[in-house]
Amino acid sequence: MENAVDALKLAFAVIVFVMALSLTIYMFSEARTTADIVLHSSDVTYYMEYEGDVSGLTAEEINRRENRIVGLETIIPTLYKYYKENYVVIFKENSSDTGFMKLYDTKTNTDLWTLGYYNRYFGGNSTKICSFDVEEETKRHEPWVVNNKFYKDNLDAFLSGGQFVFPDGSGQAYNYSSFIEQYKNTQFIESLGEYTYNETTAGIVKERKKRVIIYTVYRGG
């Protein structure tokens, strides 16, 4: 009889342990889900589909379409994260299909660009650049793609006006005029979206999506 009672106690203890363990796992799962939702909703690099042409709209109408009117105080922190979080930042003079803003001319050798790379904004092997994109900069063999310090150094020079010297000892350099000085009084429409492209790996073509932020000069309205 005593052995039977001990066995029942042991079985009851096992059941309680399993229930407690299941409850703990459930609570951790719920906490993780909640944390993911909070992080997802506060992440400025999460994008919706691009809203398209916003020319002629007032600031209030643009905001209702999930776009924002922003200044450099918003753009600069976004730029300093593009190479860490691997999203694209594009600048446009206007919302037309060809309204891309030339930020600088690449000094890399077009003959050495990775096979299959093309300038999606200005066409073909144009050296005009309107975006910050780790993937495209890598395919063009830009000198700052070596490490994060060089990415930052290049952005410092681009924004404040300065020189970024190629770290390979060639003596080549990018000499930027100050983006901040040029656009310090300018407002931009911030549009969030993504684009789709095909990537070929080991002969297999896969469809990929790239997150993107588009800054278009706001002309008022």
How far is it from the N-terminal to the C-terminal residue, by CA? 89 Å
Integer-rounded radius of gyration: 26 Å
Strand order of the largest sheet: 1-8-9-2-5
What is the beta-strand fraction?
15-25%
Given as residue ranges, the uncertain stretches (5+ residues, pLDDT < 50) are 30-55
Contiguous helical run count:
7
Q: H/E element string?
A: HHEHHEEEEHHEEHEE
The helix content, as a percent range, equals: 25-40%
Q: Mind sketching the topology for me?
A:
Layout: H1 2-42, H2 59-64, E1 68-70, H3 72-79, H4 82-85, E2 88-92, E3 104-105, E4 128-129, E5 131-132, H5 134-140, H6 148-160, E6 163-165, E7 173-175, H7 179-183, E8 188-201, E9 204-217
Task: List descriptors.
single chain; 221 residues; alpha+beta; 9 strands; 38% helix; 22% strand; extended
Task: Provide a quick synopsis of the model.
Helices cover 38% and strands 22% of the residues. By secondary structure, the chain is α+β, with helices and mostly antiparallel strands.
Tell me about this structure.
It is built from seven helices and nine strands; from the N terminus they run ααβααββββααββαββ. With 221 residues, it is of the alpha+beta class. It has two domains: 42 residues; 159 residues, no CATH class. The termini are far apart.
